[in-house]
Structure formats: C-alpha cells, structure tokens
C-alpha cells in the first residue's frame, strides 16, 4: 500500500463483520453491524503536541462513526485521527 497519513492520522483496516451468531444463525447483510475493531496499517509522524502511541500492526478499537472510509487498490480502509481510537487490544 502506498498511502502515508499526515500529522496524527492513522490508517486502519477494519475487521470483517460477523456473518454468523454464536448459536450458528446466519446474519443477513442488512442486519450486520459496522465493525469497531481493526488493524493499524499506517501511522503518521505525529505533531509537536501529539505523540503517536499506536504503531503498525496494533489491533485497535474505535468509535462507531469514527474516521473516513477510503478505498485503495480495491481494499477498504478507515483513516482517522489518533484521538478517535479508543483502545489498543
């Protein structure tokens, strides 16, 4: 991937939405919830006020409406500021 985020932005590859429940029921496409977990694939350099605490390969949790969806080379990614990330798993 040839994408380099600027300042305190992070590029995340969201984990796919669940297709089955724990009981084995198949979830239809229109009922699937947007995933709130993903893997960091690119990190910006930070700013003088913001030190980057996440790094490539970290699995993170983020807010439901956080970030902007982008498509690069046919893959879906989210780009967001580091402060939109809730936790590193």
Description:
- This protein is mostly beta strands.
- It has one domain (9-16, 28-88): GroES chaperonin (10 Kd Chaperonin, Protein Cpn10, Chain O).
- The chain is 0% helix and 37% strand.
- It contains no helices and six strands.
- Strands 4-5-1-2-3-6 form a six-stranded antiparallel sheet, with no helix packed on it.
- A hairpin with a 2-residue loop joins strand 4 (68-72) and strand 5.
- The protein is elongated and about 50 Å long.
- The mean pLDDT is 90.
Brief description of this entry?
By secondary structure, this protein is an all-beta fold. 0% of the residues lie in helices and 37% in strands.
Termini distance? 23 Å
Highest CATH level, the class: Mainly Beta
**Helix percentage:** under 10%
Q: Numbering strands along the chain, what is their spatial order in the largest sheet?
A: 4-5-1-2-3-6
The share of residues in extended strands comes to 35-45%
> Main sheet?
6 strands, antiparallel
Q: What is the assigned CATH homologous superfamily?
A: GroES chaperonin
Structural shape: elongated
- Structural class assignment: mainly beta
Radius of gyration: 14 Å
Number of helices: 0
Order of helices and strands: EEEEEE
CATH architecture term? Roll
Query: How many individual β-strands?
Result: 6
The CATH topology: 10 Kd Chaperonin, Protein Cpn10, Chain O
How many domains, in number, for the residues? Answer: 1
- Poorly predicted segments: none
Overall pLDDT: 90
Topology, please?
Layout: E1 9-14, E2 37-43, E3 59-62, E4 68-72, E5 75-81, E6 85-88
Antiparallel strand pairs: 1-2, 1-5, 2-3, 3-6, 4-5
């Amino acid at each position: 991937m040839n994408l380099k985020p600027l300042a305190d932005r992070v590029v995340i590859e969201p984990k796919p939405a669940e297709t089955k429940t724990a009981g084995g029921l198949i979830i239809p496409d229109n009922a699937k919830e947007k995933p709130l977990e993903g893997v960091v694939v690119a990190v910006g350099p930070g700013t003088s006020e913001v030190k980057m605490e996440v790094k490539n390969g970290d699995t993170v949790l983020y807010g439901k409406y956080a970030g902007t969806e982008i498509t690069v080379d046919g893959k879906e990614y989210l780009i967001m500021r580091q402060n939109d990330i809730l936790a590193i798993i």
